[in-house]
Design brief:
This protein is mainly beta. It has two domains: about 25-205, Glucose Permease (Domain IIA), CATH 2.70.70; about 215-330, Immunoglobulin-like (Sandwich), CATH 2.60.40.2550. The chain has four helices and 17 strands. The protein has helices at about 5-25, 75-80, 105-110, 230-235; strands spanning about 40-45, 70-75, 85, 90-95, 120-125, 130-140, 150, 155-160, 170-175, 180, 215-220, 245-255, 260-270, 275-280, 285-295, 305-315, 320-330. Strand 13 (about 260-270) and strand 14 (about 275-280) form a beta hairpin. The model is unreliable at about 1-20 (pLDDT under 50). The structure holds zinc ion. Zinc ion binds near residues 44, 67, 69, 71 and 172. Zinc ion binds near residues 44, 67, 69 and 71.
Length: about 325
């Protein structure tokens, strides 16, 4: 007979493992054909704050009030045109889909035009164990599943678009368990826990889904002054630096910046001399995204050939929290 002092730990172990098994009923694959932090980026997480403020699962500000899913964005419209696939995150049965809404920013059409259809072109998949996943904002006409279809993990169901309540190209991905919203990064997290709960993502994704408080999503050089519109459309790539370009400008677009963050971007010419430095004041509030530029207008006949270098830094409370150096080898003609 097993002594009581052994029996209790065994019973505890049994209840822990069976509890865990019921909990681990779903394992999620990435719902987009992309590489996080390289070709796609987690822009917003589920809001864990019950008030009118917002807090992500790590108690950062990478969310907004009542945001019920995970936003996985791509860089720009040029990339969207290539057709970035949205993928079923787990096997299941499609229980609903929509495919006829225009790809247009909500900033253009207004909230009233998409009322009741905030998800845009989307699909809902039902999985075993009371789980559902929802995929939103896909491109018009790209949704290739319909109610009743069986899908397997990783099966393409549509293309990233701009339909419904969105103003940038991304997939809004919602997970529900028995009707309740679940954060796939923090399933079962205690109220106000910062980093509690369990990830529902497949173990193979652990590196890719790491939380990054701030992230650079675009950087480069341009022959004109970049604007957010030029970067968001991808048009900026059509204005490279040439020996005769009007300007030589470095730019960085970062997401997840926090109130108090102090950014700088410094540009050096091929001799290492400073061409331009943009020191920004501390941010007055959190910024979902921010574009910083530093550059110079051409005053001589041509830009000298050589390697131009730019360094972007984010300082916070006297410490450097983000840094990137990049350069352009200009064999300028
Ligand atoms: Zn969203």
């Amino acid at each position: 007979m097993v002594a009581l002092k052994y029996l209790i730990p065994i019973l505890l172990w049994l209840s822990a493992t069976t509890g865990a098994r019921a909990d681990e009923a779903i394992s999620l694959a990435l719902p987009m054909r992309c590489q996080p932090s390289l070709t796609c980026f987690f822009q917003n997480y589920v809001d864990h704050d019950a008030s009118d403020k917002a807090r992500d699962y790590r108690c950062g500000g990478r969310s907004y009030d009542r945001h019920d899913g995970t936003d996985l964005r791509i860089r720009n419209q040029e990339i969207q045109k290539q057709g970035i696939e949205v993928l079923a995150a787990a096997p299941g049965r499609v229980i609903g889909a929509r495919n006829d809404m225009e790809d247009v920013s909500v900033k253009t059409v207004g909230k009233a035009a998409i009322a009741g259809k905030e998800c845009g072109n989307g699909a809902v998949i039902e999985h075993e164990g009371g789980w559902r996943t929802q995929y939103c904002h896909m491109a018009k006409g790209s949704v290739r599943v319909k109610a009743g279809d069986q899908v397997t993990t990783g099966q393409p169901i549509g293309i990233v678009g701009l339909s419904g309540d969105t103003e940038f190209f991304h997939l809004h991905f919602t997970v529900r368990h028995r009707g309740k919203i679940v954060d796939p990064f923090a399933h079962g997290a205690e109220e106000n826990s910062c980093g509690g709960g369990r990830s529902l993502w497949a173990a193979s994704l652990s590196e890719q889904i790491q939380y990054r408080p701030r992230e650079i999503i675009d950087f480069g050089f341009a022959g004109i002054a970049p604007t957010m519109e030029l970067v968001e459309s991808g048009e900026i790539d059509k204005h490279p630096v040439t020996s005769g370009s009007d300007a030589l400008v470095a730019y960085v677009r970062a997401i997840g910046l926090q109130a108090g963050d102090q950014q700088s971007l410094a540009l050096e010419d091929p001799t290492g001399a400073s061409m331009s430095t943009n020191n920004l004041p501390p941010l007055d509030r959190d910024k979902a995204q921010f574009l910083v530029i530093a550059g110079k207008r051409r005053t001589e006949a041509a830009w000298p050939a050589g390697r131009y270098s730019a360094t972007y830094r984010v300082m916070r409370d006297g410490a450097e929290v983000l840094r990137k150096t990049f350069d352009i080898e200009a064999r300028l003609r």
